[in-house]
Specification:
It is a single-pass type I membrane protein. This protein is about 10% helix and about 40% strand. The chain is mainly β. A hairpin with a 5-residue loop joins strand 38 and strand 39. The longest helix has 22 residues. The C terminus is likely disordered.
């Protein structure tokens, strides 16, 4: 294959068909095989071949280039992280075998997370380092990606506020934010997180273990249990231990070394008798000791450390003389005892503990007494012996163990023979109830909390010991709260809603382990803080109002209120407004009402459909909407308009042969009002000539009919003055119109040039409404009866009469058809 390719290259090179300028294509790493990255067809013609199909292949007919396998940029270009990663190939195109060099650029994706070389990074910082001191971190993470995908930023977790991270280019430093104290916390375990800059960031975490190194910032202190008194029996040799002193320095190593020394104020006798080891603090005899009388030496000892004032303690050493025979004490226990130790329960009244008998020799007489510090005990002579008693009830919580020192001295008290120590242990009883640190706790928590969230920790202590002092907690009215019976941690186990309950009063009981147990209590007041989680609410989702179209401006239409169950600003209705534009209504927020702000006209718009919104004052702002329908009630503010006839000068010719009962013409009027205000009636109030007008108008329909046969005196022009009136209350509105009728044999078009002079008198009231149903029924009965009579009596006469009048009837019908044809008037409003 390589030989074939070489032959191709040599052949094409010799032909001079190799192009010097390479084509560039881009492929994204880690894509599946078969992804198109470009095409050779845009520049060259088919066929197409590649000299080497590594990573890519070509469609020989279309020239499209596809990935042949997954390409890993980091594997392909491991040493070119900061520049383009490319590989080359060569295409042979067209029938002329042109050679086209190609460069394929592999684009990076964020497929590699940052990596720390070490999972744990140790760092040592002296405890006296000042705030703001920075410590370089050489253990930085590496990311194989490039560009933003390989750019790393760092942050700390669990630093406790002691440290922060400062990143300046490639330099990474740990900055001290708070003072360190090795004696308080020697190690700080931090988490150093490295995050790359990819669109979907990847991260890595390393443990940053900061060890605080010691400096000499603590001074020595004597231990609380160091001896304060010691007794040296008679006949002790040099080097005998007298007392072991203990002192500590919280520092480490050389900083914690302590040097012990005697004060210069001790007596010369004490300096000669005692030796102090400067390293161990052991006081021992410097010489062999044999004294004839008791001696007491007060030794002041210093614990020294560089740069510190010395710590001081005091040890009293009692030197006992050598005696041939000394008085001794025989103890007869009365109270309960164990291993020569008296055991007494606390709170017992003054009790006899033991009977002490002084065993004297003939040469040494003595008496018994208590040391001045042996309180609260008493020693009383009793028939040659002594009764050791308590002088008051003992309290375990004040002191659980007493050492009663009995002094044996001569009868005059001038010589001390010896001391006897009697131990008394006080047994605890459950006499203390648990006591809370505070009687009342108060805690605020926001509503809509997550279940299980920590609320607070209550703490109760019991002065008793062991099981008597072990406290367990419980809630008497927990509701949505729970308490850990061991730790006293109160948590919220449910989501709280302030609108249901604003304050919870909990009673916490602390019970000890005694039998019977004792309890203490505390009150926990939990205040639920409001969140703006309730939108405003209208009393109804749809308001309906009725308003007259004559309503004055700024008049109240109705009440529009909204409420919010939240509290404070969250529950304040900040605004209620109408969302519709250009409407003659507005919300009066102060009065909680809807008011008119402009004129309304039912004839233009008979209702308004509005959308009103209420907004609260919380953050975030919540709102609610409601619909509002306002119906405009009609007012009689429009006169009737006569559409037919179109003019007072209109004229209609009527044939004298018109039959009685025929409709001559019609008055047609409209009223833009509604209801009774648009109920129109018609009435003829005057006619010219005035005597016995043969015309009549139907009150509701406006139809003008001929009520009688026309006679000779009816020929000529008839002027009818008609009032058109609506049904408005209390005062109807009306208009008038002239109807001109010409009775004439010829049906030529008539003309009216002038109307008669007429001053209408006061118009009569509207005509009463007739029951048209009753009237039509009466006429029906009349005609039916008349027909029956004609049929039964005058059948023959009727036939003859019909025959005689046949021709005349035909002529009348023709005249009537002509009249009806000319009866249509133009429907136009009156001027």
């Amino acid at each position: 294959m390589n030989w074939t390719i070489l032959q191709w290259v040599l052949l094409l090179a010799s032909a001079g068909k190799i192009h010097s300028r390479a084509l560039r294509f881009t492929a994204v790493e880690e894509q599946e095989a078969g992804v198109k990255i470009g095409s050779l067809s845009t520049t060259y013609s088919a066929p197409y071949r590649l000299l080497e199909e590594t990573y890519i292949r070509v469609d020989e007919s279309t020239g499209d280039l596809f990935t042949k396998e997954r390409i890993d940029r980091e594997t392909l270009c491991p040493s070119h992280q900061d520049g383009d990663c490319t590989f080359s190939n060569t295409a042979v195109v067209s029938l002329n075998f042109e050679v086209v060099p190609m460069i394929i650029i592999v684009d990076d994706i964020n497929d590699n997370a940052p990596i720390f070389e070490r999972n744990e990074i140790p760092l040592h910082i002296p405890e006296d380092a000042s705030n703001g001191t920075s410590f370089p971190l050489d253990d930085q993470a590496q990311d194989k990606d490039t560009g933003d995908n390989g750019a790393i930023r760092y942050y700390l977790k669990d630093s406790g506020g002691f440290f922060s991270i400062r990143q300046d280019g490639r330099e990474l430093e740990l900055v001290l934010q708070r003072e360190l104290d090795r004696e308080t916390q020697e190690n700080h375990l931090l988490f150093l997180v490295a995050v790359d800059g990819g669109s979907v960031p990847r991260s890595a975490t390393a443990h940053l273990n900061v060890t605080v190194t010691d400096v000499d910032d603590n001074c020595p202190e004597f231990d609380a249990d160091s001896l304060t008194a010691a007794i040296v029996p008679a006949l002790r040799v040099k080097g005998t231990a007298v007392a072991q002193l203990k002192a500590t320095d919280k520092d480490l190593g050389q900083n914690a070394q302590i040097a012990f020394s005697f004060s210069r104020q001790i007596s010369d006798r004490a300096k000669a008798l005692f030796h102090l080891d400067g390293h161990t603090g052991l006081i021992s005899l410097a010489v062999d000791v044999q004294v004839d009388s008791p001696e007491e030496h007060v030794l002041k000892v210093f614990a020294n450390s560089p740069l510190c004032p010395p710590a001081q303690t005091q040890v009293t050493v009692y030197m006992q003389p050598v005696m041939s025979q000394e008085p001794s004490v025989k103890i007869k226990f009365v109270a309960e005892h164990k291993n020569q130790v008296i055991v007494l329960q606390e709170n017992e009244p003054p009790t006899v503990l033991a009977l002490l008998e002084l065993e004297d020799t003939s040469t040494a007489k003595g008496t018994l007494s208590l040391d001045k510090d042996s309180m609260p005990f008493s020693l009383k002579p009793q028939a040659g012996s002594y009764l050791l008693s308590t002088s008051k009830p003992l309290d375990f919580e004040m002191c659980g163990e007493y050492e009663v020192t009995v002094i044996i001295s001569d009868p005059h008290g001038t010589r001390l023979h010896r001391r006897e120590v009697i131990k008394v242990l006080v047994e605890d009883v459950n006499d203390n109830a648990p006591k809370f640190e505070q009687a009342r706790y108060e805690k605020d928590i926001r509503e809509n909390n997550e279940p299980g969230v920590f609320l607070l920790r209550v703490q109760a202590s019991d002065a008793d010991s062991q099981q008597f002092g072990k406290v367990r907690y419980r809630l008497t009215n927990g509701g949505p709260f729970r308490i850990d019976e061991e730790t006293g941690v109160i948590s919220v186990v449910e989501t709280l809603d302030r609108e249901q309950l604003e304050t919870y009063i909990l009673t916490v009981l602390a019970r000890d382990g005694g039998e019977p147990s004792l309890e203490g209590s505390a009150i926990v007041s939990v205040n639920i803080l409001d969140l703006n989680d309730n939108p405003p609410a209208f009393p109804t989702p749809h308001f309906y109002f009725f308003v007259s179209e004559s309503i004055p401006q700024l008049s109240q239409v109705g009440k529009v209120t909204a409420s919010d169950s939240d509290k404070g600003e969250n529950g304040r209705i900040a605004d209620v407004r109408i969302l519709n534009a250009d409407v003659p209504f507005a919300i009066d927020l102060a009065q909680g009402s809807l008011r008119s702000t402009g004129e309304v006209d039912r004839e233009k718009q008979d209702r308004y459909e509005l959308l009103v919104v209420a907004v609260d004052g919380g953050s975030p702002v919540l709102s609610a909407t409601a619909r509002m329908t306002i119906f405009i009630e009609d007012v009689n503010d429009n006169q009737p308009q006569v559409l037919l006839p179109s003019s007072n000068l209109s004229c209609l010719t009527i044939s004298p042969a018109t039959r009685a009962g025929s409709m001559i013409t019609k008055i047609y009027a409209i009223d833009e009002d509604s209801g009774m205000n648009s109920d129109i009636t018609y009435q003829i109030v005057a006619s010219k000539p005035a005597l016995h007008s043969p015309f009549q108008i139907e009150q509701h329909s406006g139809n003008i009919t001929l009520v009688q046969h026309l006679r000779g005196e009816d020929y000529g022009m008839h002027h009818l003055f008609i009032v058109v009136r609506d049904g408005g209350k209390p005062d109807p509105l009306q208009t008038t119109v002239w109807v001109n009728l010409l009775v004439n044999e010829t049906l030529e078009t008539c003309h009216v040039n002038a109307l008669p002079d007429y001053s209408p008198p006061r118009l009569p009231p509207p005509m009463p409404v007739k029951d048209s149903r009753c009237e039509s029924n009466a006429w029906l009965i009349f005609y039916c009866g008349l027909c029956l009579m004609v049929i039964s009596v005058c059948v023959l006469l009727a036939v003859v009469a019909v025959f005689i009048k046949h021709r005349k009837t035909k002529r009348k019908v023709e005249q009537k058809n002509v009249w009806e044809t000319g009866n249509l008037c133009e429907l136009k409003p009156l001027n």
